[in-house]
């Protein structure tokens, strides 16, 4: 089979390449509609305060202003004006109070942004200040002010064996996820029990295209939304619930998306734009600035406490974890992230007992939500760092410690789960050798390993696809996977082209419009090729089978005796064009063949998350670095990263995904953090938020795409794009300890923190 593949694995030109490099590509920021108004919002200067009064009368009289939206406008009985994932707690604009500096209080629709901004300055708001809780510790204090005195509407989804969830288990905690398996008495078997605490900083997604949408509430009650979104169908469902409009009256269109990394899920700009359009009867564009992006969605900061029992020979016995996620002012996707952070805390290692608890703590800061790695970044930072720390404490080589305890190919992650679909030892040996792990070290120079491991493909995630082929062999692929830069249009088209034995340029990936495209839950969890890919594969196979069946009947043979080749049918040594056969059967107007495909992992109550993981996304990393003892500066000489594509549909795209993920991991490890002075964000702009620059690239940067061939997707493919981010931070911390003997447990790993650790080492205080 491998030798017969013509399109799979080839570095063909990306379907979106020419549009993007020539500037022809259209994004939501380029969208315009006749008569379009522009929306801007007034944001709170207070972190936590009741809204005593709001006066927008003067703003409504400003030139060019068509509508002003404030909290009282939401109380007209025509809508349910709050949104969220599991918990509906975020209002379209603030009603009773504000909960962070940047909370949206009012919105204006005007002929242009300048007029809208001028009107915002005329809105008067009277506040009654309330005590604020800027940090996790402050929010959990017994006397802390509560962000929500009344419990918002929320649900706990069904879980499988060992898992459980709770709403509001204690003050300022919106959700708790727990996973337990085995016997707590296993700790008694341990020769050593190590307890360590890790801190993970808050980060911003830094997607270049801002949050933006254009909404039009048309006469007759139809709603059209063009938006930069990763999950158009769930977004449509949420808009349906908010505005009490049937889904068949709402259209969501998504052009190219200029980066998302998880942030562009669920409602962001859409509810305000839709409501202002209803108020004005005209299309409304709502586009945030980069500074507003920082106030809209972030990655969760976290405190992670890990207690691990181990034998003297390095055998891991039991692990107990407590994870506290900083959810910010609204729940957003925090409950979903808590599931993943808590579930992934064991890492890819065997334990007799696992006890993980993850709580979502509400603070008076910007909301936190999905972010590339989705809880795996936080979990891997703590989990894999501590495995390395334990090895060094016991005098065991960290590589040998991992090899001794990691799960094998085919071995379930935990009871009831699917088996690991990569050989972890093979990948670890690969990066270790490439980075010089087995070579002698120079002074102040070290090599560290990292191993990231996450369940992939999403939980209970369905995907549908449709493939249509015309009389003359032109192919249309319809599916809901959003092109966010990851190359989905190309890879999925390659799958169709391979199955139908057609040139890739014969496959058109249709624009994403919820009126016509089959359902998909969203472009997340690296599910494009692992879940949607299986739906696309089945749709293409259905078309192929229909065509071969038709041709067999016309030629007086069986489908098994035929094969396709560029819209001809091969029968023995004869090649017959299909178009004349089709027109001969169906008439001169011809015919179109349509195939439907569907995939969803079956429900399984034995699986902790109610379905077994579709696949396992793994990232291996090795870092060779040196530390300047005088300044704390870190110089990365070589960074080696690897992921397992199963089977690479497009090798260059796969490599690019690992490279991009690794550099995001580098930023997370060394630079990125949203800095708060109390409740005020002080570096919420591109110029002051530190990300890796060209000068920060490692001296040598190597990305190796493995193709171990065990994936569930088409031709053995697995999802990629998140795994290579996970191990970078622990690998760097592990290399620093290898180089100079100090351990950093808080991100980012700045020169100041390294220098402080070195000074403490010299003083004998560590």
Automatic annotation (TrEMBL):
Molecular-function annotations in GO: iron ion binding; oxidoreductase activity
InterPro entries, per the entry? Ald_Oxase/Xan_DH_a/b, Ald_Oxase/Xan_DH_a/b_sf, Ald_Oxase/xanthine_DH-like, AldOxase/xan_DH_MoCoBD1, AldOxase/xan_DH_MoCoBD2, AldOxase/xan_DH_Mopterin-bd_sf
Any Pfam family from its record, for instance, is: MoCoBD_1
In this chain the Aldehyde oxidase/xanthine dehydrogenase a/b hammerhead domain maps to 22-131
Name it.
Answer: CO/xanthine dehydrogenase Mo-binding subunit
């Amino acid at each position: 089979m491998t030798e017969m593949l013509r399109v799979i694995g080839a570095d063909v030109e990306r379907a979106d390449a020419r549009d993007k490099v020539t500037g022809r590509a259209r994004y939501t920021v380029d969208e315009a509609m006749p008569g379009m108004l522009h929306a801007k919002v007034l944001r709170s200067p207070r972190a936590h305060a009741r809204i005593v009064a709001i006066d927008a009368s003067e703003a409504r009289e400003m030139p060019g202003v068509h509508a002003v939206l404030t909290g009282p406008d939401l109380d007209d009985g025509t809508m349910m004006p709050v949104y969220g994932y599991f918990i509906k707690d975020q209002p379209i604009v603030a009603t009773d109070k504000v909960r962070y500096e940047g909370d949206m209080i009012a919105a204006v629709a005007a002929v242009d942004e300048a007029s809208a901004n001028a009107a915002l300055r005329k809105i008067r708001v009277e506040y009654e200040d309330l005590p604020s809780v800027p940090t996790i510790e402050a929010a959990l204090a017994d006397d802390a002010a509560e962000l929500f005195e009344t419990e918002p509407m929320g649900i706990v989804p069904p879980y499988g064996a060992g898992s459980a969830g709770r709403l509001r288990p204690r003050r300022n905690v919106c959700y708790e996820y727990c996973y337990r398996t085995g016997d707590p008495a296993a700790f008694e078997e341990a020769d050593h029990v190590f307890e360590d605490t890790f801190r993970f900083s808050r980060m911003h997604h830094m997607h270049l295209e801002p949050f933006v949408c254009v909404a039009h509430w048309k006469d007759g009650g139809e709603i059209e939304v063009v938006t930069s979104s990763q999950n158009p169908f769930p977004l449509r469902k949420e808009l349906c619930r908010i505005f009490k409009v049937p889904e068949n009256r709402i259209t969501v269109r998504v052009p190219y998306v200029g980066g998302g990394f998880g942030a562009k899920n669920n409602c962001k700009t859409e509810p305000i734009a839709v409501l202002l359009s209803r108020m004005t009867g005209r299309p409304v564009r709502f586009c945030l600035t980069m500074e507003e992006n920082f106030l809209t969605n972030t990655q969760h900061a976290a405190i992670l406490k890990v207690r691990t029992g181990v034998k003297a020979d390095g055998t891991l016995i039991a692990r107990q974890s407590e994870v506290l996620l900083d959810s910010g002012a609204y729940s957003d996707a925090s409950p979903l992230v808590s599931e993943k952070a808590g579930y992934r805390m064991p890492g890819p290692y065997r334990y007799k007992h696992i006890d993980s608890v993850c709580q979502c703590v509400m603070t008076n800061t910007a909301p936190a939500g999905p972010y590339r790695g989705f809880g795996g970044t936080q979990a891997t930072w703590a989990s894999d760092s501590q495995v390395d720390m334990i090895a060094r404490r016991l005098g065991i080589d960290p590589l040998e410690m991992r090899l001794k305890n990691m799960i094998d190919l085919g071995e379930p992650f935990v009871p009831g789960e699917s088996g690991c679909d990569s050989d972890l030892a093979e990948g670890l040996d690969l990066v270790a050798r490439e980075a010089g792990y087995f070579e002698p070290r120079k002074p102040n120079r070290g090599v560290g390993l990292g191993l990231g491991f996450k369940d992939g493909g999403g939980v209970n995630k369905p995907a549908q696809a449709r493939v249509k082929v015309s009389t003359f062999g032109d192919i249309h692929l319809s599916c809901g996977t959003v092109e966010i830069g990851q190359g989905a249009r190309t890879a999925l088209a390659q799958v169709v082209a391979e199955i139908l034995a057609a040139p890739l340029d014969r496959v058109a990936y249709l624009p994403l419009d919820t009126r016509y495209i089959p359902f998909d839950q969203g472009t997340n969890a690296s599910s494009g090729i692992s879940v949607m890919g299986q739906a696309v594969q089945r749709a293409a196979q259905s078309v192929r089978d229909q065509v071969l069946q038709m041709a067999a009947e016309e030629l007086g043979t069986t489908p098994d005796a035929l094969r396709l080749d560029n819209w001809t049918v091969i029968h023995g040594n004869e090649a017959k064009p299909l178009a004349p056969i089709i027109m001969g059967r169906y008439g001169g107007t011809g015919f179109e063949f349509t195939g439907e495909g569907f995939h969803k992992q079956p429900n399984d109550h034995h699986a902790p998350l109610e379905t077994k993981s579709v696949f396992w996304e793994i990232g291996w990393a090795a870092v060779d670095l040196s530390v300047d003892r005088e300044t704390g500066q870190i110089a990365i000489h070589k960074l080696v990263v690897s992921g397992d594509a199963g089977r690479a549909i497009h090798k260059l795209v796969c490599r690019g995904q690992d490279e991009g993920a690794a550099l995001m991991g580098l930023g997370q490890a060394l630079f990125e953090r949203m800095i708060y002075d109390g409740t005020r964000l002080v570096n919420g702009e591109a110029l002051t938020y530190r990300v890796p620059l060209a000068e920060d690239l490692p001296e040598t940067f190597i990305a190796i795409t493995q193709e171990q061939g065990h994936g569930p997707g088409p031709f053995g493919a697995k999802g990629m794009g998140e795994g290579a981010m996970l191990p970078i931070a622990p690998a760097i911390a592990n290399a620093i300890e290898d180089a100079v003997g100090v351990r950093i447990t808080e991100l980012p790993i700045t020169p100041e923190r390294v220098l402080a650790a070195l000074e403490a080492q010299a003083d004998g205080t560590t």
